[in-house]
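Preliminary data (for renewal application), BIS(adenosine)-5'-pentaphosphate complex.
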Amino acid sequence: MNIIFLGPPGAGKGTQAQRICAALNIPQISTGDILRRAIKEQTPTGLKAKSYIDAGKLVPDEVIIDIVKDRLAQDDCQNGYILDGFPRTVPQAEALTHIANIDSVIELAVDDQHLINRLSGRRVCLKCGATYHISLLDGKTTCAACGEELIQRDDDKAETVLNRLTVYHDQTAPLVSFYEGKGLLHRIDGAQGMDVIFQSIMETLGVK
Ligand code: AP5
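Predicted structure:
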């Protein structure tokens, strides 16, 4: 099954993608994680992407489309995948129609104030990609999965979060009607508890 997770920053795409991928045994393809890894390794793509990400802007379509094309050609994608954070513009969605057949688009809908609270409290592990919220960490500062120190993403600082939300409403939200028009969109209330959302997604995908 080839699935897209669509939704604003902080909607829970990464959190749910990780769980659903584990349940379905398919890879999670997060363009944000790929870019952050490239920045850490100081690759040419990473150097190009850094200024966009730090400003809360989208990385140019041609850079991202090439990354996704290469990633989807890898062997582990042959039995399905979740695209987490791609596509994010209409040109990216149009390019994807030439690369893949999408079976389902899950939109996680959450209002802006909720998102600001979530993102300001998010802590991440750059080693294994696990995501936490400070309200549930009980003062712990290391990753429960791999022991690495948890950090706050630079783009989770207040001003950048507001830019990312504006970019979402201007450039990514039009994809809701793009996929509605194709009969692929399923909207789920992303403000519910994580377990409830997980169950709703599994039911929507027809997996028990
Ligand atoms: P990316 O990494 O994709 O960021 P994003 O889409 O802004 O999404 P986030 O990772 O911020 O949020 P999420 O929905 O995954 O939420 P999460 O599960 O972590 O992209 C970063 C940047 O890279 C972009 O700004 C852009 O510059 C660039 N980029 C990436 N893809 C691109 C593309 N296709 N084109 C161009 N540029 C691109 O959850 C958030 C927090 O909430 C966590 O703390 C979590 O624990 C908590 N939480 C999650 N679910 C719940 C719940 N149900 N209840 C309570 N708390 C919850």
